[in-house]
Structures are given as C-alpha cells and as structure tokens.
C-alpha cells in the first residue's frame, strides 16, 4: 500500500511541528509547490482578539494544544476577524488525525467520505476540526485529475504548508495560533487582506480549472468583504465561465444561496454581471435581461435583491423560493411572451413557461422541488391579482402563497406602473374584514357581472387582463 494510502487509512502523519513559535519571524520551507515562506504576525500587529472568537472554538484550540497537537483557527474566520467582521463559523486545522480528535472530544463525530473531518458539537454550534491536508501531486498516486485539470480527489494528509497552499485565496489561508495569539501567513494573505484584495494562491487559471466554483467564491467573497479581485485572478474568469457547467448542480445551488441570501445579494449580482458569470449560472435570465432594452426587468431584479439584503440585515427570514422566483422572473416573462406569440392561451402559456424555465434551469442548478413548486406558484398567482370577483378574491387571500405572491406583485411595480391599481386593491383587501371586503366588492362589482363564482367575467375582458398582468412589458 502506498504511503499516502496508509495515511488515508488513518495512520498518523508525521506530527507537524515545523513552526517555531520563538524562532525568526520569517523562515522558508521547501514544501512541494509552491515554495512558501512563513511570516509570523505577532499579537500587537493584528487586531484579532480572543473575545471575538467563539468560546467553544477556543476550548477546542486549548485542548488540542494541551494534548500536544498543533491547532489553529483558520480560513474564513481569521479573514473575517481581520477585517472586523463576525465570522459565522469557526474552523480549526490541526496535525491530529480525525481519530485522534475523536478520542479527545466525547462530543465529536467523524464526517465525510472523501475527506474525513471531525465535528465537535456544542449544542447548536459545531466546530469543524480538519487535519492538515495536501492536494499537491506528490507522486504518491493518491490524487487523480480530470483531463481539464479538475480535481476529483484531494484526500491526503499533509503539513501546514501543504494545507495553506491547497486553499483557494490568500486571504483564506491565514492561521491564528492559540499559543502566542499570532497570525501565521504562508502565502502573503495578511498583506492582501490589508490591501483588500482577493488573490488566488498559485496559477489562477489552473486553480479555476481544478475547481470552477472558485470563480463564484471570488465574486461572493469580494462582494461580502468589499474587496477587489486581484487583476490576475479576475482575468481568466469570463474566459473560463463555461467550466461552471461541469460543477455539480447541487453544489451550485448551495453556492447560489450563499451568493444571494447572505446579505450581499446586490453586490454579488453586480459582480456576476461584471465578470461575465451570469450566462453560466442563470443562462435564460441572462438572455432575457440582454434583450430587455428598457432595463425594467433588471431594475426589478435589483430592487428585489435590495429587499433581500435589507431582510437579512434585519434578521428577517428569506426564502429560496422567493429568491428563485425573482432570479428567474425575466426568463419566465420571456418564455411567456414567446408562447403567447405562438397563440397559446394565457393560462396554458403561464403553466408551460413556468415548467420550461424550471426544467431548463435544472440543467445547471439543482433547485429542489420544495423550492421550485412554490416559486412557480408565486409566478402563476400573479395573473390572479387582476380579478375582483368576490369568491376569487377570498380564495386568493386565503392562499398559502398569497403573501409571497403579493410581495412579488409589489416588486413588479418597479418594472411597470401598470400594476399600481392591483397593488392598491390588494393592499386594502388585506386590511379589511370579510364583510367590509364583500361590501366593497359588491359596490365595485355589480352582481350580474362578477358576483357568482361560476359566472366568470366576459371572456375577452378576462383574457386581456390576465395576459397583461402575467407578462409585463419587457421592452
Ligand atoms: P464563508 O464561510 O464566509 O462563506 P469561507 O472562506 O469560510 O467563507 P468555507 O466554504 O466555509 O468558506 O470554507 C472554509 C475554508 O476552506 C476557506 O476559507 C478556504 O480556506 C477553504 N476552501 C473552501 N472552499 C475551497 C475551494 N473551493 N478550494 C480551496 N479551498 C477552499
Ligand atoms: Mg466558513
């Protein structure tokens, strides 16, 4: 069995004790590629304070140290703390194997098939503890590569240097040491954070080819942190965008949720546009926006994303169904207009447009049915806001998706003032009692035309209203 496989099976790697805490500030290691040099940023030269670190993460760090292992806070948490942010999770890297970590913490479990990790569980908080790992080709044969350079397996343990260089961005490869509260930097990440720059470690094109999702991460993290993407890391993105179609649709779904439901949706969307990634992840929306000369659909989308960001900022819940209804609305409108132009009747066209757009999008992003069904309902309910027939009004008000569909109608006002009257009616309707509403409808809608459920409004009138309301003017 090759050495690397033995390690994979859980035998301890050489303990990584190659970082002297009291040594010179800079030492050079010849770790296989690239050569890395360690810079130690002492406590008085950075702003990370223990009081900003989760007490549970501190507990894990201290227990690892007291048991003779190396343990560092690493990744997003160190980066976020350096820019004064509040990390949402605290990850730890160690030279202890997952089994050794498991033995140290009764409240831990091992997860992951491809690469084993320990989760140390403290109530609702989970501290992820990962053994230093490498993904460099060290000739052990324990790494397989896709022809295009995509990484299929990266499951060998390594040194802390290996662990640093296999990370994506320099800002994500900083290690906070509990023994002296210093930050350890092997790849120049500390300077890049100060310069507010997202920079890939190593050759950008190669790193994107290994894992195209890194392109989305560059945009998301730059949007979140207010960083610029370093020019050399930005350049290949538009060119390599089509590689995203090779990424797992389930992973892209998760990544889209992070892009748009973490409070930086507007900046993320603008980043996707600016770096040419929109056609790769939302192809039909990108095409619909490009052909919408007035820009009304884009304004509506951005308005919706602004609302999403405001909700996140206020700790209000946000729903993936509403988000995707918004992101795919331009595609839906375009499909609907196309079908209606072919003479398909309004109701049938709405259903088919909703199905077509959903199905098409599933080719890139795995949108689970528990989100795609309510997303479609939000779309299909739009055409029902033009009705003033008493029973239909009551039924729509009682619909479980009414609120979301109404909020969506409000957003559509940004694209077209044509819905102002409907918005006014439904705003009022929600505040009225059943009797008040009936009375109001009785006055506004004489019995002979609207009152009976089965006595639908005259066909010509209904068709005109429905199609007008379902498909906003897009040019
Ligand atoms: P956030 O949690 O704020 O979204 P993060 O950087 O912590 O950002 P995670 O997905 O939690 O993102 O990943 C944790 C760390 O793992 C990263 O900081 C980075 O060091 C490393 N990492 C994550 N994804 C990749 C990747 N695709 N390629 C290489 N390293 C990665
Ligand atoms: Mg994280």
TrEMBL record:
InterPro entries to which the protein is assigned, alphabetical: NT_sf, PolA_pol_head_dom, PolA_pol_I, PolyA_pol_arg_C_dom, PolyA_RNA-bd, tRNA_ntf/polyA_polymerase_I
Domain Poly A polymerase head: 72-197
Family listed: Belongs to the tRNA nucleotidyltransferase/poly(A) polymerase family.
Positions of the tRNA nucleotidyltransferase/poly(A) polymerase RNA and SrmB- binding domain: 226-288
EC number of this enzyme: 2.7.7.19
Region described as Disordered: 1-29, 448-475
Biased composition (Basic residues): 458-467
Organism of this sequence: Pseudoxanthomonas sacheonensis
Protein name: Poly(A) polymerase I
Polar residues: compositionally biased ranges: 8-19
Pfam families found in the cross-reference section: PolyA_pol, PolyA_pol_arg_C, PolyA_pol_RNAbd
The keyword RNA-binding belongs to this UniProt entry's keyword annotation: yes
Record: active site: 89, 91, 168
Alphabetized NCBIfam families for the sequence: pcnB
Keywords attached to this entry: ATP-binding, mRNA processing, Nucleotide-binding, Nucleotidyltransferase, RNA-binding, Transcription, Transferase
Biological function: Adds poly(A) tail to the 3' end of many RNAs, which usually targets these RNAs for decay. Plays a significant role in the global control of gene expression, through influencing the rate of transcript degradation, and in the general RNA quality control.
């Amino acid at each position: 069995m090759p050495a690397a496989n033995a390690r994979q099976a859980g035998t301890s790697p050489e303990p990584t004790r190659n970082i002297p805490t009291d040594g010179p500030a800079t030492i050079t290691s010849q770790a296989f590629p690239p050569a890395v040099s360690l810079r130690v940023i002492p406590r008085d030269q950075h702003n990370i304070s223990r009081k900003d670190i989760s007490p549970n993460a501190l507990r894990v760090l201290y227990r690892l140290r007291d048991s003779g292992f190396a343990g560092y806070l690493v990744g997003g948490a160190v980066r976020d703390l350096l820019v004064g942010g509040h990390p949402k999770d605290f990850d730890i890297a160690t030279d202890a194997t997952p089994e050794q970590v498991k033995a140290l913490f009764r409240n831990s479990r091992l997860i992951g098939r491809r690469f084993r990790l320990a989760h140390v569980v403290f109530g609702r908080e989970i501290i992820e503890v990962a053994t230093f790992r490498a993904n460099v080709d060290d000739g052990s044969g324990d790494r397989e590569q896709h022809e295009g350079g995509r990484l299929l397996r990266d499951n060998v343990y390594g040194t802390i240097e290996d662990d640093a260089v296999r990370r994506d961005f320099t800002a994500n490869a900083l290690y906070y040491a509990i023994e002296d509260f210093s930050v350890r930097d092997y790849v120049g990440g500390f300077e890049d954070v100060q310069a507010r720059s997202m920079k890939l470690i190593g050759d950008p094109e190669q790193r994107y080819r290994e894992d195209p999702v890194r392109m989305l991460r560059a945009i998301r993290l730059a949007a979140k942190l207010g960083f610029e993407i370093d020019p050399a890391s930005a350049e290949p993105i538009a060119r390599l965008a089509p590689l995203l179609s090779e990424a797992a649709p389930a992973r892209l779904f998760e990544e889209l949720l992070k892009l748009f439901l973490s409070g930086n949706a507007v900046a993320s969307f603008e980043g996707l546009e600016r770096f040419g990634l929109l056609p790769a992840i939302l192809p039909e929306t990108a095409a619909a926006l490009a052909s919408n000369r007035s820009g009304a659909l884009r304004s509506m989308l951005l308005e919706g994303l602004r609302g999403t960001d405001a909700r996140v900022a206020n700790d209000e819940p946000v729903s993936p169904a509403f988000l995707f209804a918004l992101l795919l609305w331009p595609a839906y409108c375009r499909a609907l207009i196309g079908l209606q132009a072919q003479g398909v009747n309004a109701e049938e066209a709405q259903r088919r447009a909703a199905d077509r757009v959903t199905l098409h999008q599933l080719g890139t992003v795995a949108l689970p049915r528990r989100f795609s069904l309510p997303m479609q309902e939000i779309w299909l309910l739009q055409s029902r806001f033009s009705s003033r027939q008493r029973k239909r009004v009551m039924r729509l008000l009682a619909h479980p998706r009414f609120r979301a569909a109404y909020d969506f109608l409000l957003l559509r006002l940004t694209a077209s003032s044509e819905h102002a009257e409907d918005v006014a009616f439904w705003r009022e309707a929600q505040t009225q009692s059943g009797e008040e509403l009936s009375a109001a409808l009785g006055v506004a809608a004489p019995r002979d035309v609207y009152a009976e459920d089965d006595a639908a409004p005259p066909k010509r009138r209904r068709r005109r209203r429905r199609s007008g309301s379902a498909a906003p003017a897009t040019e």
